[in-house]
């Protein structure tokens, strides 16, 4: 495609060079090798891709979209904000693949991965024409693609849409992160359904205040993005979003009056059963999932499925068969008779909800927690998580999560600042901490290993080392 055709209907400030230049591919990554690609330059949070143009040229770049002129001989299109125009260029290049897909977006602090996976599996139990984009990867047909971020960058997103259309995909369920909304990754997309799970403290290293974080999330829950918004009315921010939302609102909940709700909930560590009222239809649900937060996730997934007119029997049969999402509330029985649970809980709210559930299920047995907090992220949540852990746990092993560029000892000290009891041990080697917890546990005890979920690495000083919590557990199962 000619460069001039890519920038049709796009407001530009100026240009240099030949607009007849042939463009075969697009990229916003300077280190990505592609044939004759158009490179998008913009100032990011921690980088400025204008500074990497020479690397892009070495990798096949033949033209640039820039926010400031760059010293090179390639054609350049000068725009005010590259992120704003990227989706339009992608639509022109791929001939609007997003219009051939029905999009479902799931946003919220916790529950995005589980909720989107539930929808994906229910839909594909009905008809294998749905794709999933999220933290655990990209899934469609029999294909699995690794994904290093919750919501892919704009260019990657449109390459996926194009691939989905070519493979007969009709529906796409995707996790929508707050960063993706703020960085305009999903600008111009229209979702058949948008789901809001909850909003609790996280990402304040980026948004600084809960108010700014909430405003960002609320931008997605509008008719600019969504035709239907499924909103958790038991969440205080959900109550606010319900009043502000300009799209059609469908509420769900357990504690507060809602259009769609669950009741008669019974659960143990093997699963749960409950009644749901969805669009005034009563369904008796049985599932392998347990903990109250998963009832919310399931309820929103059922509402979404009913909007897409999936038969109630299909939904019920799916929920009986679906197993927990990888890295989310995965239960393992150890040789010593204890249960070990791996979960991604990495926020104060996420940790409290799972510990509250497990404490009630542990009865007279001990609840042992292994967790840490990520480096280069919201420091304010660390002491809160320490306090939450000691309230519910009989013993805690404080260890490394992904310390990144911070000193692990300092992160651990931040955690214990919120603790008043002496029911903890600091063991920064995560494998050793897990081993200590297993050796301490007795038959009937529950061990929660929190924070990393299905991650296959541990990031320390810019290096990602192979590490997976489940692999550590395997020798004890």
Summarize the structure.
The protein has helices at 3-6, 53-58, 82-94, 112-126, 154-166, 178-182, 204-207, 210-220, 236-244, 292-307, 312-321, 348-362, 380-392, 408-416, 430-440, 469-474, and strands at 14-16, 25-27, 37-40, 61-66, 76-78, 102-107, 130-134, 137-140, 143-145, 171-175, 191-196, 226-232, 248-253, 260-268, 271-278, 281-287, 330-333, 339-343, 367-371, 395-398, 424-426, 446-450, 457-460, 463-466.
Provide the descriptors you would attach to this structure in a database record.
477 residues; 16 helices; alpha/beta; 6-stranded mixed beta sheet; 11-stranded mixed beta sheet
The N- to C-terminal Cα distance equals: 56 Å
Oligomeric form: single chain
Number of helices: 16
Biggest β-sheet description: 11 strands, mixed
Averaged pLDDT: 96
Low-confidence stretches: none
Rg (C-alpha, Å) = 24 Å
Structural class: alpha/beta
Strand order across the largest sheet: 9-8-7-10-6-11-12-13-14-15-16
Characterization of the model:
It is a single chain. The relative contact order is 0.08. This protein has 16 helices and 24 strands. The N and C termini lie far apart (about 55 Å). The protein has an 11-stranded mixed sheet, sandwiched between helices. The protein has a 6-stranded mixed sheet with strand order 17-18-22-19-20-21, sandwiched between helices. A 5-stranded mixed sheet has the order 1-5-4-3-2. With about 475 residues, it is α/β, with parallel strands linked by helices. The chain has helices at about 5, 55-60, 80-95, 110-125, 155-165, 180, 205, 210-220, 235-245, 290-305, 310-320, 350-360, 380-390, 410-415, 430-440, 470-475, and strands spanning about 15, 25, 35-40, 60-65, 75-80, 100-105, 130-135, 135-140, 145, 170-175, 190-195, 225-230, 250-255, 260-270, 270-280, 280-285, 330-335, 340-345, 365-370, 395-400, 425, 445-450, 455-460, 465. The mean pLDDT is about 95. The chain is about 35% helix and about 25% strand. Strand 8 (about 135-140) and strand 9 (about 145) form a beta hairpin. The radius of gyration is 24 Å and the shape is globular.
């Amino acid at each position: 495609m000619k460069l001039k055709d890519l920038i049709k209907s796009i407001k530009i400030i100026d240009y240099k060079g030949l607009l007849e230049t042939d463009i075969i591919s697009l990229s916003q990554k300077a280190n990505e090798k592609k044939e004759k690609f158009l490179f998008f330059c913009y100032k990011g949070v921690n980088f400025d891709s204008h500074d990497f143009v020479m690397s892009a040229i070495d990798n096949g770049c033949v033209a640039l979209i820039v926010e400031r002129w760059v010293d090179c001989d390639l054609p350049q299109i000068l725009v005010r904000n590259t992120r704003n125009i990227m989706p339009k260029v992608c639509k022109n290049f791929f001939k609007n693949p997003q219009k051939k897909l029905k999009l479902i977006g799931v946003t919220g602090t916790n529950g995005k991965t589980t909720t989107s996976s539930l929808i994906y599996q229910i839909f594909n139990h009905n008809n294998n024409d749905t794709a999933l984009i999220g933290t655990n990867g990209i899934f469609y047909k029999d294909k699995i693609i690794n994904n290093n971020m919750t919501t892919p960058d704009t260019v990657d997103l449109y390459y996926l849409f194009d691939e989905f259309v070519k493979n007969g995909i009709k529906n796409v369920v995707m996790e929508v992160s707050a960063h993706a909304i703020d960085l305009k990754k999903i600008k111009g997309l229209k979702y058949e359904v948008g789901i809001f799970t909850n909003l609790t403290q996280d990402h304040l290293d980026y948004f600084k205040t809960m108010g700014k974080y909430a405003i960002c999330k609320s931008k997605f829950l509008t008719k600019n993005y969504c035709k239907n918004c499924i909103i958790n009315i038991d969440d205080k921010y959900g109550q606010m979003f319900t009043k502000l939302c300009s799209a059609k609102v469908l509420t769900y909940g357990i504690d507060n009056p809602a259009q769609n709700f669950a009741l008669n909930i019974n659960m143990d560590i093997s699963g749960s059963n409950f009644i749901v009222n969805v669009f005034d239809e009563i369904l008796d649900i049985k599932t392998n999932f347990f903990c109250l937060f998963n009832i919310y996730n399931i309820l929103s997934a059922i509402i979404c499925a009913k909007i897409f007119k999936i038969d109630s029997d299909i939904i019920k049969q799916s929920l009986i068969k679906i197993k927990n999402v990888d890295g989310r509330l995965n239960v393992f029985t150890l040789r010593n008779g204890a249960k070990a649970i791996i979960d991604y809980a990495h926020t104060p709210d996420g940790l409290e909800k799972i510990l509250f559930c497990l404490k009630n299920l542990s009865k007279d047995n001990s609840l042992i927690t292994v967790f840490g907090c990520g480096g280069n992220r919201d420091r304010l949540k660390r002491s809160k998580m320490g306090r939450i852990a000691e309230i519910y746990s009989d013993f805690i092993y404080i260890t490394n999560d992904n310390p990144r560029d911070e000193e692990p000892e300092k992160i651990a000290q931040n955690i214990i600042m919120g603790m008043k009891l002496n029911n903890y041990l600091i063991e920064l080697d995560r494998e050793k901490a897990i081993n200590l917890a297993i050796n301490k546990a007795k038959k009937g005890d529950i061990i929660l290993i929190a924070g990393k979920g299905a991650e296959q690495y541990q990031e320390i000083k810019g290096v990602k080392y192979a590490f997976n919590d489940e692999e550590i557990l395997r020798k004890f199962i």
